[in-house]
Write a structure and sequence with these properties.
Belongs to the isochorismatase family. The chain is an alpha/beta fold. It has 5 helices and 8 strands. It has one domain: Rossmann fold (3-Layer(aba) Sandwich). A 6-stranded parallel beta sheet has the order 5-4-1-6-7-8, sandwiched between helices. The chain has a two-stranded antiparallel sheet with strand order 2-3. The mean pLDDT is 97.
């Protein structure tokens, strides 16, 4: 099953590595998303890369760049954001409208921030959201481990905001 577009959120050097700590299951996440990108490309379905920008992720800096393991091309679409919600004060909705998108497949980082905010907002706009289990990741926090956080959000989203495929 495919959505009308694959939305890849914040797979940036400075997001997937915080100081010396890597995001939970970094290599597995990138392998899974790379496979999904390849599948979408093979089926000529658009891919949108979202990149977060702030004081730690300054535009064009090494930390801001997409990780080298991800195949991104000039023919793909790119959105720069300054908020967890990928729609907030960006051109994302305009790009989706231009592409006649009704369904979005989500993947990327971080589960509890940018994925959550963007996925729930897209649902509120009427998009049909899909996702594969484990195609987002995050870090341990003071309340939960990363894997518990991912499980919590996937359970929260299931059949409310996203259909898991």
């Amino acid at each position: 099953m495919f959505a009308d577009v694959l939305l890849v959120i914040d797979l940036q050097n400075g997001v997937l590595k915080d100081g010396e700590q890597e995001i939970w299951h970094r290599d597995e996440l990138l392998e899974a998303i790379t496979s999904r990108i390849d599948t979408y490309r093979d089926n000529h379905i658009p891919i949108i890369f979202v990149q977060h920008e702030d004081e730690l992720l300054q535009a064009e800096s090494e930390e801001w760049q997409l990780v080298s393991e991800i195949d991104h091309r000039g023919s793909d679409f790119y959105v720069k954001k300054r908020h967890a919600n990928s729609f907030y004060q960006t051109n994302l909705l305009k790009v989706l409208t231009k592409l006649n998108v009704r369904s979005i497949e989500f993947c990327g980082a971080q589960t509890d921030y940018c994925i959550n905010a963007s996925l729930e907002f897209a649902h509120g706009l009427g998009f049909n959201n899909v996702m594969k289990h484990g195609y987002s990741s995050t870090y341990d926090n003071r309340f939960m481990t990363a894997d518990a956080t991912i499980a919590f959000f996937e359970n929260l989203w299931r059949e409310r905001f996203v259909k898991f495929i």
